Amino acid sequence: xxxxxxxxxxxxxxxxxxxxxxxxxxxxxxxxxxxxxxxxxxxxxxxxxxxxxxxxxxxxxxxxxxxxxxx
Length: 71
Known about the structure:
Blueprint: E1 3-12, H1 16-23, E2 31-36, E3 47-53, H2 58-67
Parallel strand pairs: 1-2
Antiparallel strand pairs: 1-3
């Protein structure tokens, strides 16, 4: 599967601070998303990367994933 990073998502209890800092950079993808969270989330990752298939549409990629053998 060919893909590209589409978003970088960061959880933050104070999303306005990092949003204000990173807003000055703008430009090409990936988009930086700062998601508000109520409090600490032990055991949960605070960062995840979204990717989009570039060699097929969303429906075709979903079908490909559904057809994979489970581990």
